[in-house]
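Q: Please design a sequence for this.
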């Protein structure tokens, strides 16, 4: 009997090894088609628990210097930044410095319409359900918005004299709203929000390479973003892409290695208590909600069945995720608790690669 068990265990180990090797081979093949050695590239990590299922990088971080894109390369996260801003607000609430039920007028008494500001609560801003219109005229004044920071991007919203809908009734994604939340962190903590996140999230998580800009991009070991135009990759980030300098909506720069630590810190409650982390992953439906779709944003993460919030797919797993898209950069951080799988990738060639990963994980029975 013991001999049979030994044989079965050997067979299971061999199967696991061959399955993982096959996954790596198929992913390498897929990404070798997407990324060329002399073009902008990216890096990918897939892990199950503490076990790395796949980790690789492709292409170049900088076309001028020919520096390769690696898992240590610092790249712009785009809107994944908003998860750090949200955690900053939730941590301040946990320390009784503010409440997500506080209204905007408390933090911005210079709102033109006091009634509007008193109606909108921080939780409405967090969940993209404030109804505040985006009054920035980025296309008309693109030169200004190349250097406009958080304050300059949020200021136009303070002149709103009407709302697109009543707060807490519908979802409409807002970048400048998160510039406002970054300013709330500053007003409440009495320090630059970049420093607050650095000290209270990056440091306890061990994210030593991560930075939050307050102006230009990081200078060392950094990727530049590129977009393919007329068959030529053209740089499109700082100096070319308006609103890039506004950090609250997309100013975090990080690497695959550091984002791996971020995921671990979330799972192990390293930078705040587990009640805050659990709250950040939990959906709630406002009483007056009348949006076309059910609530799928917690105030920190998008939470839904399957990999995409707006597209139904075959896998029957609950997903916690946030993606990023800014200039020539794209990114995605995905957690699948019931499978203990996490995925994070960064690209600087304007390509979104989640679909390739999803299809292979589904085909090889990792997520179904």
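A: Design:
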């Amino acid at each position: 009997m013991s001999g049979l068990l030994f044989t079965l265990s050997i067979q299971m180990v061999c199967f696991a090894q061959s399955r993982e090797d096959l996954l790596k081979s198929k992913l390498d093949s897929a990404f070798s088609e997407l990324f060329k050695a002399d073009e902008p590239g990216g890096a990918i990590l897939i892990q199950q628990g503490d076990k790395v299922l796949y980790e690789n990088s492709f292409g170049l971080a900088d076309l001028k210097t020919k520096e390769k894109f690696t898992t240590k390369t610092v790249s712009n996260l785009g809107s994944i930044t908003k998860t750090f801003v949200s955690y900053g607000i939730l941590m301040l609430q946990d320390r009784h410095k503010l409440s997500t039920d506080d209204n905007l007028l408390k933090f911005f008494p210079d709102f033109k319409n006091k009634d509007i500001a008193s109606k909108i609560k921080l939780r409405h801003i967090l969940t993209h359900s404030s109804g505040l219109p985006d009054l920035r005229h980025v296309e008309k004044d693109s030169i200004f918005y190349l250097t406009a920071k958080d304050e300059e991007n949020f200021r136009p919203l303070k002149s709103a004299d009407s709302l697109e809908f009543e707060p807490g009734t519908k979802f409409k994604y807002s970048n400048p709203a998160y510039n406002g939340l970054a300013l709330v962190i500053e007003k409440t903590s009495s320090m630059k929000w970049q420093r607050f996140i650095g000290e209270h999230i990056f440091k306890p998580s061990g994210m030593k390479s991560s930075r939050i800009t307050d102006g230009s991009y990081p200078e060392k070991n950094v990727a530049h973003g590129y977009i393919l135009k007329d068959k030529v990759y053209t740089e499109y980030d700082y100096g070319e892409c308006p609103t890039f300098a506004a950090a609250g909506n997309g100013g975090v720069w990080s690497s695959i290695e550091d984002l791996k630590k971020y995921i671990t810190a979330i799972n192990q409650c390293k930078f705040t208590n587990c009640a805050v982390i659990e709250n950040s992953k939990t959906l709630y439906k406002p009483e007056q909600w009348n949006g076309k779709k059910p609530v799928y944003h917690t105030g920190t993460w998008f939470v839904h069945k399957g990999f995409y919030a707006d597209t139904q797919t075959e896998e029957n797993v609950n997903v916690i995720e946030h993606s990023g898209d800014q200039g020539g950069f794209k990114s995605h951080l995905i957690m699948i608790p019931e499978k203990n799988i996490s995925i994070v990738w960064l690209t600087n060639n304007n390509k979104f690669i989640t679909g390739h990963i999803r299809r292979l994980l589904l085909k090889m029975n990792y997520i179904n």
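Q: Thanks. Anything notable?
A: The mean pLDDT is 94. Residues 207 and 258 are 5 Å apart (CA to CA).
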